[in-house]
Amino acid sequence: MENELKRLIKNSTINISGNAFSKICRYFIAFLVIKVLGVNGYGHFALAMSIITIGTIFSSLGMHYGVSRFIPIYLGKQ
Question: Is the four-CA dihedral 67, 68, 71, 74 of positive or negative sign?
């Protein structure tokens, strides 16, 4: 029980540290992109990233759920 608790704390610390590092890096990258592209260019960049993100969401359309459901059914029929 104690070993599992230590492992949980260790993994949680790694996860929180990674998330914090990611957010800090995103902040500095955004700052760098604004400095390089300017305010107008950053607006275009943000719009393009939003369109790509929305396109990615719609392109999958639950494919991972379908694959995890129908591949075992298909393999079971063989």
Answer: negative
- Tracing tokens 């998330």 back to the chain, one arrives at 19
Dihedral sign (CA 56, 61, 66, 71) = negative
Does the global pTM surpass 0.70?
no
Residues whose CB is less than 8 angstroms from the CB of residue 30 and which lie 6 or more positions away in sequence, other chains included: 42
Question: Which residues lie below 8 Å from residue 42, measured CB to CB, with a gap of 6+?
Answer: 30, 33, 34
How many CB atoms sit inside 10 A of residue 37's CB? 13
Instruction: Measure CA 47 to chain center.
Output: 18
Over residues 17-39, the pLDDT tens digits come to 999 999 999 999 988 989 999 98
User: How many alpha carbons lie under 13 Å from residue 41 in its C-beta half-sphere?
Assistant: 9
